[in-house]
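Annex B.
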Amino acid sequence: ISICRDLPNIEVITFSVNGISDLEPLHQCQNLSELYLRRNNIASLDELFYLKALPRLRVLWLAENPCCGPDPHRYRMTVLRNLPSLQKLDNQAVTEEELSQALVDGVEITAPPARRSVENGWSEGTASSAAGSTTEPHSELLSCSLEETNKTQEELDMKPVPRDKYSSFSSQETDCSCRQRNNVLSAILLLMKELDAEGLEIIQQTVARRLQAFQKKELQEE
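Cilia- and flagella-associated protein 410: predicted structure tokens.
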């Protein structure tokens, strides 16, 4: 997610199923209109502090994060109180009645979350939430990552990634490195939409050189 600090004009971000816990890198994305963060490690609704300064944000998907807590009503009211410009939250349209009720039932967030370091580098709140949750099976993570990547490729009129090829990568890497590579791939594919013909030619030339370098390295190893 740190790449977003260098993408102030990005409009749509899909970071579902990525282990994200910190939304600070998003606070400068002033053109952001849609943000998908389903099933991450966001421990506190205080992270909404970083989204309050985004004037164009209209769609947010935050469900299945620890910050949603045991009370769905309180969660939704707090999000809408702090982000009253939302038109859709967790794939459900926002109504005028909800926005009015949020002023009563929601909690206003006025400061960023406190981050107290622990041995593993997470905040204490995130660590405790993670400890209380169950780990997702690798097959489910693979399925979700593949779904997100193929969705992006379909939008670009590209062929979807074959499941057998996708699985072969994951069998050679750790879950973390596999997800990280797929996140980078999804980000690159999304950014390609913003390029003109000249930009795409530069990408094509760069990819060709990289492939040649990999092929040369493989031949040397053999």
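The helical segments are 72-82, 96-105, 124-131, 138-155, 163-172, 175-192, 197-221. Residues 2-105 form a domain with the Leucine-rich repeat, LRR (right-handed beta-alpha superhelix) fold (CATH 3.80.10.10). Further annotation is deferred to the next reporting cycle.
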